[in-house]
Amino acid sequence: MLDTLFFIASIIPFLIQGISVTLQVTLFAFAIGLALASLLTPIRVFAPVLLSWLPRTYVELFRGTPLLVQLFLIYFGLPSKGIKLDALTAGILALGLNSAAYQAEIFRASIKGIPESQFLAAESLGMSRLQVYRYVVFPQAFRIALPALVNEFVTLMKESSLVAIIGVAELTRRGEYLVAYTFRALEVYIAVAMLYLVLCLTFSQGAKILEKKLKIPGYERSS
Q1: What is the largest CA-CA distance in the chain?
Q2: Among 9, 21, 78, 159, which is least packed, fewest CB within 10 Å?
Q3: Whole-number Å distance between alpha carbons of 151 and 133
Q4: Hey, which of 40-44, 113-117, 129-133, 207-211 has the most confident mean pLDDT?
Q5: Distance (Å, whole) CA 46 – CA 51
Q6: Angle, helices 138-159/87-112, rounded to nearest 10 degrees
Q7: Which pTM does this prediction carry?
Q8: Can you tell me the distance from the alpha carbon of 100 to that of 82, in angstroms, rounded to the nearest whole number?
């Protein structure tokens, strides 16, 4: 037992070096997803039917196909068309495009939770549709969506382990290096799981504090 604990303690510093890559992949992918979702959502919610099918198709496509297949299409498929990306860039892009579909649905549901009277009041003040979205809808939708966005971020952090398959030296990949070197898979992957758990719990607790500060007065999220 003590030997196992000492071994896990000895490999933690090596694994921690992969956390920075895991966070880099997660943060950049989430930012890509957030930017795309901010474009897709207003088109789907406010645009005519002839245009709204575009974001709806995007969402269904990325939610309805495995993330691993999407990663392989970008990393292994694009080079056949002359577009070659390094493993880190391909991993971030695949995760970001996938996350955009889920974030778009989160924002769409949040916008639906805003009373229709606020849209009418803003338009009666002479605000354009773009101004209504920018100054009235989006700030409230973001606050309402925050808990779900945090869940998506944590999910994305765990899904970032998939980029180990294409050679990105993040947390999981470093665990694979140790397994190949020490042949102690159980202890190594326990340590990897513990570090993921610490990361996810840290961000979740931080988000709860932020959620309380940004809470909309009078709005209660159903459990």
Answers
A1: 71
A2: 9
A3: 24
A4: 40-44
A5: 9
A6: 140
A7: 0.90
A8: 25
